[in-house]
Amino acid sequence: MYENIALTETTYYILLALYRPNHGYGIMQKAYDLSGGRVRLAAGTLYGALNTLCDKHWIEQLPAEAGSRKKEYRLTEEGLDVLINEIERLRELVNNGDAVMKGE
Amino acid sequence: MERKKVWKLFFVWDFEKEEAWLNEMAAEGWTLCSVGFCNYTFERSLPEEYTIRMEMRPYDPEYIRFMEETGVEYIGRIIQWLYFRKRTEEGPFDLFSDIDSKIEHLGRIGKMIASIGILNLGIGILNSVNPTHMGWINLLCATLLMYALGRIHGEKKYLEKERSLRE
Lengths: 104, 167
Prior knowledge:
- The complex is a heterodimer of chains A (104) and B (167).
- Chain A has one domain (9-101): Orthogonal Bundle (Arc Repressor Mutant, subunit A), CATH 1.10.10.
- Helix content of chain A is 56%, strand content 9%.
- Chain A is built from 4 helices and 3 strands.
- Chain A has helices at 9-17, 24-34, 43-55, 77-101, and strands at 22-23, 59-61, 72-75.
- Chain A has a 3-stranded antiparallel β-sheet with strand order 1-3-2.
- Chain B has 167 residues and is an alpha+beta fold.
- Chain B has 2 domains: 3-90, no CATH class; 99-166.
- Chain B contains 4 helices and 6 strands; from the N terminus they run E-H-E-E-E-H-E-E-H-H.
- Chain B has helices at residues 15-27, 61-69, 99-128, 135-163, and strands spanning 3-7, 30-36, 39-44, 50-56, 73-78, 81-87.
- Chain B has a 3-stranded antiparallel β-sheet.
- The chains are: A mainly alpha (104), B alpha+beta (167).
């Protein structure tokens, strides 16, 4: 069902960062750490992407905790499937790249 | 705290120049603290203490709260132009980190310019039949805004072409 979807880097890192529930700023930090400081999700971009991903039901908002104004998000089942598919697709890309470059 | 007010006019298609100027002021130790029509109020700060960013977006308290969560301060707005700042020591500050969201932002700016332009065109045409009214001012505004729209459109087209190759 998802085989032909190539995610953008922004979407990929958001889904990856939400493998454990997280809030907006936490997602930015997680993407930064995972990529060794290469990926900096900007706040405006992240806000738009989170809304779009919620609309697509790939992620969802956690019920707000008492006393906390920060919104937390988590992956849905569907979002997890999309992420697993994308990791498989990326693996294929890298394997093909390696194979061609090594002249196989 | 020491403050100063500066009057300055920027055309809407020059928002990047406006942002660059605000950051030059910040680099000199004058950080934007409030905005009004064609005027900017700055407060004394350390040189390069803050980075300033502008965004066209309908005012939404939820968005402001989200920005504040990420360490961004909301300065104020002029209609739908929002002004933000963030301490430089907290790292580079940008509002958009991929081409898609930059294209979307230019789309929002284009829409806003188009609607004000059409409004001016309408008022201009209605008033031009009556010689005592200053309909030509509206027509002039409409012409300027259409020019602005062209500039924004060109920038957007360039990004869309890039987007077909990369993110």
